[in-house]
Amino acid sequence: MDLLVTTNGIAEWGVRRFRCALGRSGIVVEKREGDGATPAGTLSLSRVLCRLDRIVQPDTELVLAALQPDDGWCDAPEAANYNQQVRLPHGASCEALWRVDRVYDLIVVTDFNVAPVVPHAGSAIFLHVARPGYAPTEGCIAFALDDLRLIVSEWRQADRVRVAAD
Q1: By the 8 A CB rule, do 23 and 135 touch?
Q2: What percent of the residues of the chain are helix, what percent strand, and what percent coil, each to the nearest 5?
């Protein structure tokens, strides 16, 4: 089953509808590093990362790992580890995954720009927890924590996220 995400900030999954936040630049067909856009297309979910010091481990069929204080995600297009999880400190630019603001308490990693990784094509496209008021993201798709927990708990390997550009 597809989780259909559209430009109006609504995700539909079967009969369910969830509010979500998208990238500050909307949905684009050609994603570029730093453009603040959510990439259009079909995405698979590969694994779940979570802050077990803050939330109860979600029940999921996806591979699950506990986040650690030194976890990061490389966003430096010329680095060998571009668009990959890394340990901090790291020699290239990275986003810290262990955050104070709670948006990464539950992260679902997508398969965007992974096989192969293309420099400058975008990194760290996740499903994660929305900020208050569903403020725009840097390109990810963000949901209320309870909605994201539900999605993770009912996700099956054949399911996909379909991000539709108008």
Answers
A1: no
A2: 10, 35, 55
**What is the value of pTM for the model shown?**
0.97
Q: Are 4 and 12 in contact (CB under 8 A)?
A: yes
- Give Cα separations from 84 to 44, 115, 150 (angstroms): 16, 12, 26
The CATH number linked to 43 is 2.40.440.10
Predicted confidence band at 146 (pLDDT cuts at 50, 70, 90)? very high
- Which distant-in-sequence residues (6+ apart) come within 8 Å of 25 by Cβ? 35, 36, 37, 139
**Do 94 and 86 meet the contact criterion of CB atoms below 8 Å apart?**
yes
Q: In which domain, by residue range, is 135 found?
A: 2-163
Element of type H or E holding 49:
strand 45-50
SS3 state of residue 10: strand
**Pairwise CA distance, residues 96 & 92, whole Å:** 12
Q: What does the pLDDT read at residue 165?
A: 85
